[in-house]
C-alpha cells in the first residue's frame, strides 16, 4: 500500500493488497501449493510450502501495516496463537535463561511453564496488575506481558515495563490478542515482539485458527520464521486468506464491540448480584488510568462474577443472543463460566463475556432478562 493513510479504517480496508493488475482480483485468492516451479539455485520468495506462500505474504504485510503503520516491520503468520507464542519463547530462550511470565495470563501458559522448565529455563511469574513483573526482572532474558490479561482484564504499563526490561538487558514480548493492533500497538510502546492469536478479534468470525508475531528487528523475525519452518506450524492458505479478508472490517467491528462493551459494563454496574466487574474502558476500573494512556479502543471483553456456579449457569442458559463458547472477539457474542476449565484462578461464578456486533439495545436487553431469570 503506497503512502500511509491517516485513518485506521482506510488502512484496515487497504492493508496488504498488491498493486492493481488489470483483470486481476483486488485480493488474490488463496494459493494452494506444496511446491512451486523451481529450476536452478533455490533463490526467490517461493520454493516449498512449509517455508512460504503468496497468501501468507499478503496477510503478513497487512498485519504489519496495522501493527506499525508507515514503519519497517516484519510479521510471521502461524497456525494458531499458541504456535506464535511458542515460536517467540522457543526461538529466543536457551537452557540457563530466565523468562518472566504473567501469573494471571492465558490458561495454556502453565503448560508452557512445564516445557520451559524441562529444557532448563527458569520461569518466574508475577501478576499483570500494578506492573508487578518489574519486581522479578533481574537477570531475565525475556519478559512476557499480556495486557489486558485474559480473563481478569488487568492492564500493565507497557512503556514502563519495556523501559525497565531493556535497561536490565531483557527482550519484551506483548500478547496483544485482546486489544488487537487497532486497540493498542505494543511495538510503538517499546516492545520487541507483538504477538496475537488471530483466532479472536483480529479475524472476528470464529471460523479460523491463526496467530502472528510482528517485530521491527529483521534478525529476530528471521529467528521466529526459522522456528516456524522447523516445527511446521504454518497457517493454511484458506485460513490466511479468510483472515486477510476479515481485516477490512476490523475497525467497524472494534468500534461497535468496544462501544457496546462499555454500555454493558455500565449496565452491569447497577446489578446488585454482580461483583468483580472489570472493563478497562469503564471509568473507575482499576486499570482505566493506564489503559486510557496506551489503548485507543478498550476491547470487547467484559468480566464479572455471579454469586455461585449454579447462578452463573442459570444466567448462561437463559441467554438467547449469546453463545456459550470459549473464544472471544467474534461478531456473535459469547460468554462462559471460565472456572469450568480449571485453569484460571477465578471464582466459580466468574463470567467472561465477549460482546459481538449485535444491536446494543437487543444485547443489553437479553443480558438483563437472563440476569433476572437467573435470580429465581
From TrEMBL:
Alphabetically ordered keywords of this record: Pyridoxal phosphate
Region (Disordered): 1-26
SUPFAM superfamilies: PLP-dependent transferases
Pfam families: Cys_Met_Meta_PP
Database matches in InterPro entries: Cys/Met-Metab_PyrdxlP-dep_enz (IPR000277), PyrdxlP-dep_Trfase (IPR015424), PyrdxlP-dep_Trfase_major (IPR015421), PyrdxlP-dep_Trfase_small (IPR015422)
Coiled coil segments of this chain: none
Cofactor dependence: pyridoxal 5'-phosphate
Gene3D superfamilies (alphabetical): Aspartate Aminotransferase, domain 1, Type I PLP-dependent aspartate aminotransferase-like (Major domain)
Family to which the UniProt record says this protein belongs: Belongs to the trans-sulfuration enzymes family.
Protein name, per record: Cystathionine gamma-lyase
Amino acid at each position: 500500500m503506497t503512502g500511509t493513510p491517516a485513518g485506521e479504517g482506510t488502512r484496515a480496508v487497504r492493508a496488504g493488497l498488491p498493486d492493481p493488475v488489470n483483470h486481476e482480483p483486488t485480493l488474490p485468492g488463496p494459493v494452494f501449493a506444496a511446491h512451486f516451479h523451481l529450476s536452478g539455485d533455490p533463490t526467490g520468495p517461493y520454493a516449498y510450502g512449509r517455508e512460504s506462500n503468496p497468501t501468507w505474504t499478503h496477510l503478513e504485510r497487512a498485519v504489519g501495516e496495522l501493527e506499525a503503520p508507515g514503519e519497517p516491520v516484519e510479521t510471521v503468520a502461524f497456525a494458531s496463537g499458541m504456535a506464535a507464542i511458542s515460536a517467540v519463547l522457543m526461538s529466543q530462550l536457551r537452557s540457563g535463561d530466565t523468562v518472566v511470565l504473567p501469573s494471571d495470563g492465558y490458561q495454556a501458559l502453565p503448560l508452557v511453564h512445564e516445557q520451559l522448565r524441562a529444557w532448563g529455563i527458569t520461569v518466574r511469574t508475577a501478576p499483570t496488575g500494578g506492573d508487578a513483573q518489574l519486581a522479578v526482572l533481574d537477570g531475565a532474558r525475556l519478559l512476557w506481558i499480556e495486557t489486558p490479561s485474559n480473563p481478569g482484564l488487568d492492564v500493565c504499563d507497557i512503556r514502563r515495563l519495556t523501559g525497565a526490561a531493556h535497561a536490565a538487558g531483557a527482550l519484551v514480548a506483548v500478547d496483544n490478542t485482546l486489544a488487537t493492533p487497532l486497540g493498542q500497538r505494543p511495538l510503538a510502546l517499546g516492545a520487541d515482539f507483538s504477538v496475537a492469536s488471530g483466532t479472536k478479534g483480529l479475524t472476528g468470525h470464529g471460523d479460523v485458527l491463526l496467530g502472528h508475531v510482528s517485530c521491527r528487528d529483521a534478525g529476530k523475525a528471521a529467528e521466529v520464521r526459522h522456528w516456524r519452518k522447523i516445527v511446521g506450524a504454518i497457517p493454511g492458505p484458506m485460513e490466511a486468506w479468510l483472515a486477510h479478508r476479515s481485516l477490512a472490517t476490523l475497525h467497524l467491528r472494534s468500534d461497535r464491540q468496544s462501544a457496546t462493551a462499555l454500555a454493558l459494563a455500565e449496565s452491569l454496574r447497577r446489578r446488585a448480584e454482580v461483583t468483580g466487574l472489570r472493563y478497562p474502558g469503564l471509568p473507575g476500573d482499576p486499570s482505566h488510568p493506564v489503559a486510557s494512556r496506551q489503548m485507543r479502543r478498550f476491547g470487547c471483553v467484559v468480566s464479572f462474577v455471579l454469586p455461585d456456579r449454579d447462578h452463573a449457569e442459570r444466567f448462561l442458559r437463559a441467554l438467547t443472543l449469546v453463545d456459550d463458547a470459549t473464544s472471544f472477539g467474534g461478531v456473535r457474542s459469547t460468554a462462559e463460566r471460565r472456572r469450568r476449565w480449571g485453569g484460571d484462578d477465578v471464582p466459580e461464578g466468574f463470567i467472561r463475556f465477549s460482546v459481538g456486533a449485535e444491536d446494543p439495545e437487543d444485547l443489553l436487553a437479553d443480558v438483563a432478562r437472563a440476569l433476572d431469570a437467573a435470580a429465581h
